[in-house]
Amino acid sequence: MGLSTHRKAKGEKQVVAGLGGDAAIAEPARAASFSDMRDRVYSRIENLDIAPDLGADIGSKRWFRGLGTFVGLSVVALAFWPDFAPLEAASPLPDDAQVRSEYRSQMIMPLGLGADTGRRMGPTALVRPLAEAPERPQMQLLATLGRGDSLERTLMRAGLARGEADEVTKLIGSAVSLDDLEPGTQIDITLGRRPEAGAKRPLDKLNFRARFDLELKVDRQGDDGPLNLTRRIIRVDETPLRIRGQVGDSLYRSARAAGAPASAVQAYIKALGTQLDLQRDVRAGDTFDMIVSHRRAATGERQAGKLLFAGLERGSRGGVNLMRWGEEGDFYDADGTGEEKGGLVAPVPGRMTSRYGMRRHPVLGYRRMHSGVDFRARHGTPIVAVTDGRVTGAGRMGGCGNAVRIRHNNGIDTRYCHMSRIAVNRGASVRRGQVIGYVGSTGLSTGPHLHYEMYRGGKAVNPASVSFVTRKQLSGSELERFRSAMGTLRDVEEGAALADLAPTAEETAEEEPAREIDKLDKPKTIG
């Protein structure tokens, strides 16, 4: 046992000694090999050619290895490329008054203001409906007659039953023509108490301005009585409005600054333009004078109309005085000479496709004189007379097909060919711009167009080389009436039409004092 123990101890010592000896000897070796290994790795890394110059040694192994490295790094970079897709965000709040009001009704602030939005939150289980809710005894509405709408539909939208709306329409139609009611007319409607739940409210009264000088009222006689129509004639004064002033830097701006309506100023400038060169003949310091038709009602409303008189005082350079006269509303000067109308109107709105002169005929196939001009236009386009004249021929005219020939002043004739339909008869007088037929393709024609010819003394002339100037002249008794009317018009005082009409004794007696409570109770507007 002792020997065994001694051997074990000796063996342990040997093992321990061996281990110790090996460890003592191995540690420096391991340290040396790790250092060498590290140096070798560092050396290889330093000598490693990761990014060679691709601009040198093109086509060599080193160059292809560098290209592969570049492609690989590029693939890695693209794999980690960030996504630039748009981010989803909340949609913006629509900029609409109704939408804003809807959002506002859900806020807390309206609760503190007594729910001034007129909206309310949905009821909960704690809310119980009333067995019976009281209704307003009357309801006031303000309906507006729309363009293209009828009076009956307007009344039904306001709440009247169909039968009652039809009855009111017939009453009003007996006083005025329903077609004369202008769009935008406002109708003040008062509805009464419902006879039973779910029924339409009956009409108590209705009134509106049917014309500038007429007000109509429909009311009910008693609680269940019939409807009655009352007409109220409004006194209207038609003294024209005269506006005078000095021309400044701009005639238009000066007239507008003096209070003239824009439409009247435009008509004034157009009328003067027929007599003067506005850029050259009108100077600062000249005095413009215009008279406009004007109506003022006893109830205070005013209505300006069209221009009646256009005058311009230019001192020693002479003045211009023009007055509207006749059914056509043309302006004439003090001598009864009408406005000048220069040039020809185009017979059709199309462009010219073939001019006057020699050409190869599209149907006959040989060259011959084209004694007119062609205008491109669609089939059925209206053809108008280029100026005033008398029809000397209307019918079939050989290669011209359906045609119209017109004799004008100074020995001028015009002819309009290839019509699909003729709108005038031989011997009729036509005016400048009047429709005389419609574009077609009758006669020797390859398609719808207008062939237009002009003759002077029986010989064809180029239509593009002629322009007409026509002037009207009053004479005899008509000239006397014209001068008398101009004298009366020029006696109108400046600004006389701007004064309010003094009420008559009857109008004062009929006028009811306005109560303060009535001013607060405004009718509800219905479109």
TrEMBL record:
Location of this chain's protein in the cell: Cell envelope
Gene3D superfamilies reported for this sequence: 3.10.450.350, Glucose Permease (Domain IIA)
Coiled-coil residues: none
Ranges annotated as biased composition (Basic and acidic residues): 512-527
Necessary cofactors: Zn(2+)
Source domain of life: Bacteria
Record carries keyword Mitochondrion: no
Keywords from the named record: Hydrolase, Metal-binding, Metalloprotease, Protease, Signal, Zinc
Nuclease is among the record's keywords: no
Ranges where the Csd3-like second N-terminal domain occurs: 242-347
Region (Disordered): 496-527
Compositionally biased residues, Low complexity: 496-506
Matches recorded under Pfam families: Csd3_N2, Peptidase_M23
Limits of the M23ase beta-sheet core domain: 368-463
Protein name, entry field: M23 family metallopeptidase
Organism per entry: Qipengyuania polymorpha
